Amino acid sequence: MFEARLSQGAVLKKLIESIRDLVSEGNFDCSENGLSLQAMDSSHVALVAMLLRPDAFDPYRCDRSMPLGISLKSLSSILRCASNDDVITLRAEDPADQLSLVFENPQNDKVSEYVLNLMDIDSEHLGIPETVYDAVVHMSSSEFQRICRDLQQLSDSVSIDVSKEGVRFSAAGEVGSGSIALRQNTNVDSGDEATVIELQQQVNLTFSIKYLSMFAKTTPLCGRVTLCMSSDVPLLVEYKIDEVGYVRYYLAPKIEEE
């Protein structure tokens, strides 16, 4: 038996909304460690890993580990029936062929119940090695989203150059070129707006801006984003969900043609 009650239903709604365009289906793994998902996009370019720990829920019950094979599009459609201030309860029997969703609205004593048919999804769990990155950038998630949106007008690729001066995003295409530089600044009024850089050595890598823009859809969940970069390893883009979980995206850099 699996049961998890989320008092802030908006968190689950925003979470599924942010990843549904990247991955269409996946196994949500319920275990004593919480509710997690690891899935690759259809072209096997990007990987998403998310976790909601047990303390995100009250109560959280999982008698034994089990996968819930879910179509994210279908789940997203059902979650759109919930208000942002609804309490959402997820339930599944063991073995699970259906996921029950209950939306409770404390304001108007309304309870909605839905059932989602589960899928049998064959997926392998990838071991993601612990990596010490050459450059780590902590910045405003809305600023990152804005940069992706602006530079996407120029090219399908963006170069990210991290140095001790700051971080520079640049793009060049048929229309023209552009760059946006953020200096390291910690003395801004809002902590969410600060740009903080941890640098072992300078890094300059190029990525598909389409994928970065997809990752940036997670902005409503978190005011800050962390970009972790090293040569020859995938970029890690991490959004922390308060103290209760995270969404992490991994994207391989584009290899520059000689």
Automatic annotation (TrEMBL):
Gene Ontology CC entries for this record = PCNA complex
Q: Which UniProt keywords apply?
A: DNA replication, DNA-binding, Nucleus
Which CDD domains does UniProt cross-reference here? PCNA
The family database entries (Pfam families) matched by this protein are listed as: PCNA_C, PCNA_N
Note whether Nucleus occurs among the keywords.
Answer: yes
Q: Which InterPro entries match?
A: DNA_clamp_sf, Pr_cel_nuc_antig, Pr_cel_nuc_antig_C, Pr_cel_nuc_antig_CS, Pr_cel_nuc_antig_N
Keyword Transport on this protein?
no
Which terms under GO biological process does the entry name? Answer: leading strand elongation; mismatch repair; regulation of DNA replication; translesion synthesis
Q: Where is the Proliferating cell nuclear antigen PCNA N-terminal domain?
A: 1-124
Q: Which family does it belong to?
A: Belongs to the PCNA family.
Function, in words: This protein is an auxiliary protein of DNA polymerase delta and is involved in the control of eukaryotic DNA replication by increasing the polymerase's processivity during elongation of the leading strand. This protein is an auxiliary protein of DNA polymerase delta and is involved in the control of eukaryotic DNA replication by increasing the polymerase's processibility during elongation of the leading strand. Involved in DNA repair.
Q: What is this protein called?
A: DNA sliding clamp PCNA
